[in-house]
Amino acid sequence: MSEFGGMEELLQDFLTESSDMLSDVDNKLVELEKRPDDKTLLNDIFRGFHTIKGGAGFLNVDALVTLCHRTENLFDKLRNGEMKLSAGLLDYILASTGVVREMFGELAQKRQPHSAPQALLDSLDAVLEGRLDANPAPAAPAAPAKEEVKAEQVSTPPAAVDGEPDWNKLYHGLLGTEPAAPAKTETVQAKAALEVAPVKASEPVALAPSSGAFANTGVSSMNSGQQIAQQLTTQETTIRIDTNRLDQVLNLSGEIGLTKNRLTTLRTDILQGRSDAHTLRALDEAIGQLDLLVSDLQNAVMKTRMQPIGRLFQKYPRLARDLARQLGKDVELVITGEETELDKTMIEDLNDPLVHLVRNAVDHGIETKEERLAIGKSEKSLVQLAATQVGDHILIEITDDGKGMKPEMIRQKAIEKGLLKVEDANNLDDKQSLQLIFLPGFSTKDQISSVSGRGVGMDVVKTNIQKMNGRIDIQSIPGEGSRFTISLPLTLAILPVLVVKVCDQPFAVPLAMVREIIPLSKNDIQQVSGKATMVVRDEILSVRSLASLIGWHDNKPPSFGVLMQSAESSFVLAIDTFVGRDDVVIKPLQNIKPKGIAGATLSGDGSVVLVLDMEDLLAALGTDQASPLFDFA
Amino acid sequence: MADKNMKFLVVDDFSTMRRIVRNLLKELGFTNVDEAEDGQIGLHKLQNGQFDFIVSDWNMPNMTGIELLKAVRADPNLKSLPFLMITAEAKKENIIEAATAGASGYIVKPFTAATLDEKLNKIFQNLGK
Fold first, then answer.
1. CATH number of B8-123
2. Residues of chain B contacting residue A160, judged by C-beta atoms under 8 Å apart
3. What is the pLDDT of residues A538-561, one digit of tens each?
């Protein structure tokens, strides 16, 4: 049962808007750590809490109002210079945003959130009253002075209750008018004021009995990264669209309607036997126009699903900061390209992989302060998160200036874990070795840390990204750092493919992997230690025939090769012939999942074309990709 | 009694809040409502459209409610428009500031339709004098 009868829609709006605002506050807090005196930042953060409080008040979410009221007051003092920001104080504030986020999570499930941990509220009160010097050393618990607390109870709420009647007198006094308000109105007003400020008046404040309470707030601050990650997956069932984009869709569908009318008229003409040159030209024109309009409409619809990736990125500076603090590291997360737009579903699906990669960078990539100083690096380390659009792809890069990865160590580790045979290890080049970290069960840290080393990580990251038709690459220079590059298609809805033919059966290959098409003749193929290979511009590539990959026997020798590039390797896919490129919408196959088939689509002539999932097809053949796949002789 | 067709401008940076105020006004029978995201946009709309009533939040980026109020009172075409200030605080100094700047009324968040009606009626009464 929902506790927000009749207000669900409003609640949804509030959550969407406030979550963005909270992420913004979180980021500004990380900024604030660097520039504690920045008035604009202080003002913005103040306004963030203030606005959330205001909205929460209307929704009667008292727990949220109580907490935001305190943080807002704190920032009021900070921006007025009555108080100085300290690391300890910032911890309380960050803990508060963590709790606010938890409350949003509860609200998303249409539940009244639990009130904030009493210890946190008490600490905030103590700081506000100047009883706590905001350096939460365990030895400095808040002095439990009962009288003081009572005094505070009286002094915090008065404004709301006293202020109202005061306003009338003031107003008339200042304007020189007679106090017109009759006594009756006064009481109604006072009552209303009491009604509207229930939180301030209630909420008895009991002080934390011991210093142990501070440990709790610390923990909740540390966990906030986790909460951020969870929170993002629990919501987002609505989408906010720029009205201009929506109007474009409307406009195009209107025009398509007009073209359809034209076609209907032409059909009648043709059915009645009028098929002169003029009619046929008109038909051709109408279809040409429809073609244009439909592709415009597809584009416009796709754009309505596009969201700036910044909405996702903005959650990570806080994540990196909290983790770095926990590990005693000094890490700055720099974000660029947050305006880059990406399909909404992909933004959601990217969260888990990115959280993992950011954590990995901070936890495994970056050295400790001591290590960094010892090798002449600056104590502060840099993690960069960047997004750019390159052609019809989005590139996301996570770069750290940490210790980098040594290919030979990774090979060694993979052998130790039984993921790789010694003889295979020698065949791997450095790039392939780095890819080993994506194997299930691989974790380079001997001791599993609570943060990122649970051994179920990078393989999940890779699987998730592949599910989005994307790929992930690693570059790493030992001693200088690592870079993970994620490449994603702009949208999942429409997939550009190359249609190829084997044994007269058409197949669609994702165009993203296709580098070029080359003619293939028997003389080009060389057998190198039993494997079919060919040289393309000085590069030795293995050759696999599509027929043998899908387990068919092709009597004809293949006449074309498609140069395919995947994350790990490049190879030549041998085919009979090709039809051309096409934009297709993939329909998943119901109830069956043949290896290497992503789904099916319809071709222009109405026949069914299977869309190949190359990674899956290659994986089906086992990890040893260098084995002879077909005999070309 | 107030004309139910009078045109309101609701100024708030938080769209949820604009929606709340709009709903409350609707409850009271006022359906002719436009919105602005901050004081600057609000002022622009006021200068280019026929509005009869301003309901504005105090705390906003770019141009705050109090700055908007001052700008409205300084504009010969707008200076007599009724202006209801919304805020989350009822601090004395804020009230004085709003009153000196020429606010017609002051309402503290959160409020109900009844409270809003009360405030509006009082302003209409004062206008009628």
1. 3.40.50.2300
2. 90, 108
3. 888 888 888 888 888 777 788 899
